[in-house]
Amino acid sequence: QLQLVESGGGLVHPGGSLRLSCATSGFPLDRLTIAWFRAPGADREESSFIMCINFEPSWRGPDGGRFTIGKDKNLVYLQIENMKPEDTGVYFCAGTPRYLAAEHCTMSHEYDYWGQGTQVTVSS
Predict the structure, then answer these.
(1) Which residues 6+ apart lie within 8 Å of 61 measured at CB?
(2) Residue 2 in contact with residue 112, Cβ under 8 Å?
(3) Which of 4-13, 29-38, 40-49 has the largest mean confidence?
């Protein structure tokens, strides 16, 4: 069974950067699709999609490229640059052993496994 554990959250000043990690176990990482979602609070049902990665080593997202997702051993990281107050929230990683193409990996219902979330606060 796939297990996901997020870490790396905390308080960041606007303009700062942060790297969140999602530790995976139970499945080979190169056969997982992993996504990051953000929710206003602890209820992941309210989460919105940020980025996903399937069997590729790393992807860079829109929004001026502020978000980068990648893999490092058994971790999937989310690097966030030039952070803004609207980046505040609880960040969840979600995973599935299925390959999801780009148009499907944005959808929370595609993921069978979720972590517990890590709080990120962007404030001066």
Answers:
(1) 50, 51, 67, 68, 69
(2) yes
(3) 4-13
